[in-house]
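If I may wish for something, please sit down with the protein I am sending here and say whether tokens and residues agree:
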Amino acid sequence: MPAATAGAAVTPGEQARLTAWVEGRVQGVGFRWWARARALELGLAGWAENLEDGRVRVIAEGASAACGELLALLEGTEAPGRVVRVTHRWDKPHGGLTGFSER
């Protein structure tokens, strides 16, 4: 599955912010709940939200390795619905996030 990468390079062991835009049949199938559960398992903070164009945006902050694991899960075949493409961006964390919510 192709993925576009933009933003700052992330070094293992550092804190990172992942923004991922997930395309496909990902609304109305429990995708945000699933993404929240995976993010919490990985110790990440942030949110997953439906966008008006049918995509889901996932914002996650925490250990860069955990963010990378979440990205791999978002791109994988276990997610509910049907993921067609995931584009993503790496940034330095903004901080101040606690928990992981569905918006």
Remarks:
- The chain is about 20% helix and 40% strand.
- The CA atoms of residues 45 and 96 lie 9 Å apart.
- Confidence is low (pLDDT under 50) at residues 1-7.
- The domain at 12-94 is CATH 3.30.70.100 (Alpha-Beta Plaits).
